User: Fold these one by one.
Assistant:
Number 1:
Amino acid sequence: MSYALSTTLHTTFEDAVERTRKALADQGFGVLTEIDMKATLKAKLDEDMEDYVILGACNPPLAHRAVNADRQIGLLLPCNVAVRADTAAGGDTVIVDAMDPQVMVQVSDKSGLREVADEAAAKLQAAIDSLESADAG
């Protein structure tokens, strides 16, 4: 099983991050954290890498249901969404990867968690799909 829901966009990195934030918000996700991997690795290790940001997205009603089903599932929250430049493709190509919430069900079989994972996966897939349709338009 793949652990990511993904799409490739043909736009600038900054535009991809902005569009991803909006697509997540449209599906009820707020971005609680943002990790700029490029800046962090440069500052801490003096290593260079492509543009790469991890957005920690959370849908509070779904998160509440998930932790009510399994208190330890909080270890897998929030849903991480990585926006990264595709250096292999060159130019303005950006990959957006969202963690597939179905991974939670592989880790925990607590009652009620599958329904939360299904709903979260549908919302994240809708966000990814909206990025694809906006990119095609």
Number 2:
Amino acid sequence: MDFAFDARTEELRGRLLAFMEEFVHPAEAVAEEQRAKLASPWDTPQVVEDLKAEARRQGLWNLFFTNQHSLPDEEYGAGLTNLQYAPLAEITGRSPQLAPTALNCAAPDTGNMEVLAQFGSAEQRKRWLEPLLAGEIRSAFAMTEPEVASSDATNIETRIERDGDDYVITGRKWYISGAMNPDCRIFIVMGKTDPDGDDIRRQQSMVLVPRDTPGVEVRRAMRVYGYEDHYHGGHAEVVFDGARVPVANLVGEEGGGFAIAQARLGPGRIHHCMRLIGMAERAIELMCRRAVSRTAFGKPLAAQGQVQAWIADARVAVEQLRLLVLKTAWLMDTVGNKGAHTEIQAIKIATPRTVVDILDQAVQLHGAGGVSQDFPLAELWAAARTLRLADGPDEVHQRSLARRELGRHA
């Protein structure tokens, strides 16, 4: 990256790049070795805890918390803008299994912490946000359901019913990221408190449900293209069978769940896109290394016209994406998430799709190695392809963006 950012961002970039080179990348193989010896594949390898401790020592912690969200105070994070955080998140995308967790900047915890900071009560922030900020526990966000098209959040069927001083939650969720991690202690659950309400976007609410609540069953881990995503805490099917929590566990107000979800998704989408650019950069680096080290049909792969075209096109695409993501981050800082709506939709459409193509070409260039566990490409491809569904499928964003564009000419 040749951009010149402000002095603080450049200083953090330098420290983070050094942290990645000295600690994170060497830890990738160590983490795999340690995980193979754990009693449960969902347990955290010791090297991950070591990385977290080192990141805290170096002040590379909770960098995702931007200063635009009217937080209760500024001690929660580094107080960066979205534009300042963008190049840092990109760097962590080069090792998405380890780096975001090491910096306490991993989804879904980041979005959940932002929800608690913006909408949680003082007691909720004390009980759940503070240990999340300290990296002592993990969390999950429970919205997606197997029985409905969850790309339309108004479809969700989980019921949150008032019973005296309690809410009773009944429903089935799946692909609940992070829920298999034994350190996941709290769910933010989205369900309907007013299923017959006239306004379909005021029917939903969010409640905090501790994992150990009677009636909560983490049933199984859902695979993603065959991967269980152990480092992310998996993607679980979770059943809420009459789980009962105090009314004080309501996040915000009744009927505010849809609006909270939208507020949560804006930063989450751009964070994913920032990291995806880092994944693409690593893919290009691996392509180049492979191309100069292998010979086929009498000349190096680097001399093959098709390979040169792949690498050139990948570089052009990444530079285009980066500019669009940085523009989006700047708009979020200056005019807010609503003002950046079109650009947020655009990056969510363009970035995963383009990065999937780059990773696919990198896999092709590596041959059998590209689909193996000896290179990170197959797992990176699966993660990038999944992001064409996560936080809303491409088609939903295309629909929203097109409506806004057409509205200018109505």
Number 3:
Amino acid sequence: MTTLEPVSVALKFGFLAVLYLFLLWVVRSALKDLRGAGGGVGGLPIKGAAIPADATGLYSASTLGSADVAHRAPKLVVERAPGHDPGMIYDLDGDIVLGRGERAEIRLEDPFASSRHARVYKQGNIVVIEDLGSTNGTYLNEELLQSARPLHPGDRVRIGDSEFTFEVD
């Protein structure tokens, strides 16, 4: 039995090392999510950072008219996305799918994006975004989408490491 003792001790230390590495990975991922796009905790901007004048928050049902796009050109502007230049503009004509797949109108080279991740479409005079059952979720203004939601000028859409701003002309 004495020949097995060193192996047993080595296995115990190896297990503890893997456990600690896993915990460090979880903490690092949680901190990354908490920092969000704004650089501050919970996705809030860092003190002194500029907040766009048209940035939006929560909306009541009576303010849905502010997203009226009947005679305006809705678009997504790339803030940051692997394989895309910041400032790139995607016009939202019709039903647009964002994802990694070949059939996505806006192709994302993001490892955290599903092949058909999210859909943006017009519903009457408003533009709506919905998650298509993606693995990692779609975030609207750093809030996980649970159902289809209307987009308002200045809204931020995040899919993995890719972030877009919704604008209308």
Number 4:
Amino acid sequence: MSKAPLEIRSLNVAYHRKMVLWDADLSIRPGRSTAIVGPNGAGKSTLLKAALGLIPAASGEILFYGEPLKKVRSRVAYVPQRESVDWDFPVSARDVVAMGLYKKIGWCLPVRACHRRMADEALADVGLADFAARQISQLSGGQQQRVFLARALAQKAELHLMDEPFASVDAATEQAILTLLKKLKDQGGTVVCVHHDLDTVAEYFDDVILLNMRVVAQGPASEVLTPDNLRKTYGARLTLLDEAVVDLSRPGAPRES
């Protein structure tokens, strides 16, 4: 039986002695797209960063394909929040994508023509073939997001972790992301995204993890997105009508205005 792409057991994370994640347990199913959903401050981005070792965990076990991350790092790609990137750094879109090829290039070795071609192919896959030489600071927010998606694509990873990829993007970028997610799944990959929009979660993702410092529920979107689970996750902040919440469990259902 194949190992889960990501398995987290009893994860606890604290900022300045304040607990942000409590005893989080989850297991990601391979070959599917999974959304991590919850209110602001629920620990969604923290969970991804802790899993990747970008912030320390107080306790818990994190396994990728049954191994610590350092043993399978090349199988895992990460797309950070756009706001966390220094977009004034003097590099081109092609340079950023080529950073995802470090395993093939080698540390401190020059980027060769074959690597530039691979970067350009990934940029073409996200609709940015004509922007390869453009400095990243000269790109729109949606184009910048697509550059990081192209970097993850060039890496040829099996598991893709994305932190709010749909946040504040234009319609063209949203469609490019959806196309990329489908392509990754068709190639046998697994996708995990922090997501903020309840209206689209059942339409865009196979599985859902509801998180509010603890994992409230996880599984297929049609089973997890129930009024009871959403109330447990959002509490008084959930303002949707019961009927609208139920509709959210059906892909393509009418959205609450």
